[in-house]
Design brief:
Layout (H helix, E strand, L loop, with lengths): L18 H8 L4 H7 L4 H15 L5 H23 L16 H17 L2 H14 L3 H4 L4
């Protein structure tokens, strides 16, 4: 049985750690430099996206569009890593597994930025993806 209670469903994907990027961010190193040094680390892109979204203050402006772009990069880098680790485009990606959080955070910021700029279909797709990955993720990320 998977941790999500589906006997026939795919096993949860648990991404590997990216210790260098994660530690650099926890040490408050500049997320721009961390993303440049670790461009495949979704967590670095999520940090950049979250900061830009805050700077955008819920308005349609360059900061919100930067948040959208950073989040989309983190989302795509995360998809690449998920697929390399057995994900088939659906199934559990648990929020409780910390290395998964960079990808899930990027998806959440992408949803928020998409909603701000009026891209409602993308917003809905992101919410659906978060629900499929982990039903608790949207709430953990302030999207409930």
């Amino acid at each position: 049985m998977t941790s999500f209670g589906d006997l026939l469903g795919p096993q949860p994907v648990l991404l590997p750690e990216n210790s260098e990027a994660e530690e650099a961010l926890l040490e408050n190193q500049d997320a721009v430099l961390v993303a440049a040094a670790h461009p495949t680390a979704s967590i670095a892109w999520a940090y950049l996206a979250e900061a830009a979204l805050i700077a955008g203050a819920g308005e349609v402006n360059a900061d919100t569009l930067a948040a959208y772009a950073f989040a989309r990069t983190g989302y795509h880098r995360g998809l690449d890593l998920l697929r390399r680790n057995g994900w088939k485009g659906f199934g559990p990606v648990p929020w409780s597994h910390e290395p998964n959080q960079g990808f899930l955070r990027a998806v959440a910021v992408l949803a928020k930025a998409a909603r701000t700029i009026g891209e409602n279909d993308e917003y809905a797709r992101c919410l659906d993806l978060l629900e499929d990955c982990d039903p608790r993720a949207a709430g953990e990320l302030g999207l409930d």
